[in-house]
């Protein structure tokens, strides 16, 4: 049983170009695409805060100013809403800026997820920290991140989130070979492969966008050569840490069976919007009725 430093910091890489959603993302960050009436990035920040991570660092890039503006105060807009007596919208606008302190660092050059995480080194220091990718929306009712933080505190290692996928789809993900840990819900990660061919995949366990990392990952990333796509891959660094004799106290996995949406994929994004909208008290039933009529 290991109990290290508490996990209090969240790193949210948000410097990607969002090419899969062009032309919508030509002038707007993909993270600002609305999921019902909140931008996708707000769900991710709320998840971090809910899990007790009160220090959020966003890794941004050129043309990402809208992210900072969204979580900043908007005195002019707030004044207009206040004068109109529109307290509901006023509260929703203020809520985003009251979530907590959010810090920003620019990646400068898109060199991959590993490089984006490395940009957080100075801010994070020698503490374990969480990484949340904005493309993955985890259901608000789930406690995935809290569970991962608990596993990190118990093992002292790094923890990744895994889901079971159709073996035919594994080539779209990082893939993990794992060993069960006796008496525990989590698994030990023995090997990671970035986007393997289906026939060469060690399992059907895919890595998704939640990590709780030991700070030794920074030293490994600094010595990780560019991999797939000529980018510095976080998966490659974690493979080094998982391998026998690797730096740090190993890599573990939490297999997530709850609800998640990949908002970087157009179909999954639409499913997220429809699913979450259909659960809204104000218009969910009307929407479901309309969908039934539309389908018929």
Automatic annotation (TrEMBL):
It is an enzyme of class 2 (transferase). Its EC number is 2.7.7.9. Residues 9-275 form the Nucleotidyl transferase domain. CDD domains: UGPase_prokaryotic. Gene3D superfamilies: Spore Coat Polysaccharide Biosynthesis Protein SpsA, Chain A. The keyword Nucleotidyltransferase applies. It comes from the Bacteria. GO terms for molecular function: UTP:glucose-1-phosphate uridylyltransferase activity. This is UTP--glucose-1-phosphate uridylyltransferase. Belongs to the UDPGP type 2 family. One of its GO terms (biological process) is UDP-alpha-D-glucose metabolic process. The lineage of its organism: Bacteria, Bacillati, Actinomycetota, Actinomycetes, Micrococcales. It catalyses: alpha-D-glucose 1-phosphate + UTP + H(+) = UDP-alpha-D-glucose + diphosphate. Keywords: Nucleotidyltransferase, Transferase.
């Amino acid at each position: 049983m290991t109990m290290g430093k508490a996990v209090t910091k969240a790193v949210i890489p948000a410097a990607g170009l969002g090419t899969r959603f062009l032309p919508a993302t030509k002038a707007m960050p993909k993270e600002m695409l609305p999921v019902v009436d909140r931008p996708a990035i707000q769900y991710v920040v709320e998840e971090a805060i809910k899990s007790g991570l009160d220090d959020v660092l966003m890794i941004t890039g050129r043309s990402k100013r809208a992210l900072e503006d969204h979580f900043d105060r908007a005195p002019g807009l707030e004044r207009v809403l206040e004068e109109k007596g529109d307290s509901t919208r006023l509260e929703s606008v203020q809520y985003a800026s009251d979530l907590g302190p959010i810090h920003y660092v620019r990646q400068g050059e898109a060199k991959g997820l590993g490089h984006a995480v490395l940009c957080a080194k100075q801010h994070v220091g020698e503490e374990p920290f969480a990484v949340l990718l904005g493309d993955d929306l985890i259901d608000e009712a789930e406690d995935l991140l809290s569970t991962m933080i608990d596993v990190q505190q118990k093992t002292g290692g790094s923890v990744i989130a895994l889901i079971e996928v159709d073996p035919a789809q594994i080539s779209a993900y990082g893939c993990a070979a794992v060993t069960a840990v006796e008496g525990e819900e989590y698994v030990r990660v023995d090997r990671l492969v970035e986007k393997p061919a289906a026939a060469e995949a060690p399992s059907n366990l895919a890595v998704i966008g939640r990590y709780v990392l030991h700070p030794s990952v920074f030293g490994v990333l600094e010595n990780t050569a560019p991999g797939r796509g000529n980018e510095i891959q976080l998966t490659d660094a974690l493979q080094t840490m998982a391998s026998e004799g690797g730096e740090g106290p190993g890599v573990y996995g939490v297999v997530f069976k709850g609800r998640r949406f990949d908002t970087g994929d157009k179909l999954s994004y639409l499913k997220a919007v429809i699913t979450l909208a259909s659960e809204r008290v104000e218009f969910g039933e009307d929407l479901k009725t309309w969908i039934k009529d539309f389908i018929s």
